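#struct-help
A.M.: can someone run this one for me? Single chain, 485 residues.
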Amino acid sequence: MCGIVGVFNHPQAAALSYYALHALQHRGQEASGIVTMYRDELKNKNRFGVHKGEGLVLDVFSAHDVFTKTLLGSSAIGHNRYSTTGSNSLANIQPFHFNYRDGNFALAHNGNLTNTRSLRAKMKEDGAIFQTTTDSELFLHLIARSRKQTQIEQIREAVQTAQGAYSLVMLSENALYASRDPHGFRPLCIGRIKHEGGYAYVVASESCALDIISAEYLRDVEHNEILVIDQKTVETGEFTSYYINESMEESRHCIFEYVYFSRPDSKIFGHNVDKVRRRMGKNLAEESPVEGTEDDKVVVIAVPDSGNTATLGYARVNEKLFPTRYEIGLIRSHYVGRTFIAPGQDMREFKVKTKFNVVRGVLEGNKVVVVDDSIVRGTTSKSLVKLIREAKPREVHVRITSPPVKHPCMYGMDFPSGAELIANHFETEEAIAQELGADSVRYLSVEGLMDSVPDAPGTGYCTACFTGVYPVEVDLASSKLAMEE
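D.P.: on it. Structure tokens below:
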């Protein structure tokens, strides 16, 4: 899972990309980069401006002169890295850029390909030399090796050959391209900003990246679409669009984007994340309420921040059934990164201890319901229950606004091994509750989850992590191990 952004026709394209990447920091915290395209008037040729590094956006772009001396030009693309394939190394930091027969080209990718091993093996056999261990580099080779005559045909052939999940922003000397795979696993939206030179166009993983730069949301890049933003777009306001495949299949949006990954203030797949999460909480309360009395009110608290809005939905339904109070019982330190996407189990356990603190007056002596979005490995939940127990509540009940995660995700989420998932080690919710140290654990059913997400003609969801039903055939390439060569 990563965050991507593209800007076309703005004199401060790099600065806009920088702020957009700030808004998308939750999508990747390992590394960040921006590539711009600008005209070198002295040598009469187009050049790249490149700045990339490990760490958070604020750290990578801490030098202000980067934007005045390096990242020049009116078009740019940016990337926040969260590794699912490929090691965490400098070579794997995106955007990637190269020069081939049709000029300079750069690319940033969010997602995970499922035919990486077979494509990589074939290219090596044909003499290709790889510089990274990430599946994203395959797009560069596919585009550069294409025998098609035009750049859009080369891109189309490349994305037809790749399989799996990809949202892409690509920058050429004359255009910004954006594309989502035929199933539309990962989100990607389009916005525009009016300035003295007309309209600038922005493509980003989530609409929160448009909000921070005051860009107007226009629409999503559709699944199975390649969108071209060029001078014609600037002059007429019209996009040029191509299908990847001629036949349109129903989308398979990643449902975990709604459950956990996207920001609640974002619009993804055309719908507000906040509203979907509230409905998840409501459905969970209808399925698994916690009983209280006038003398023994239920205290409902969220695991911040991704559980906040779902908890509101849960509390409002539970209070209609039993005496209930919604309270703030956990305080999160925002100076510690997401525990779920921190690489390495030991680091994850350490971060849980530094990330949260309890409000003892809210929890002590009470029947507490803790609402969270998911349980993956169980490390975070176990540590949280232990932390809450230290505040001496009478009971601790855990409610999860998604079904048990039982299967590895091959499309870009970081739970690639079924052996790591707690739901595969315990057959019942009671057994999981005992493992976590809670009085009870209840998950939202698959039916309750599907009732929570928007339903429209041609729209479907990938629920593989819950059901084991994979929309796109998977080979071993989607595993991290396949790329660690």
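A.M.: thanks! DSSP finds 18 helices and 24 strands in the chain.
D.P.: also worth noting: Confidence is low (pLDDT under 50) at residues 476-485.
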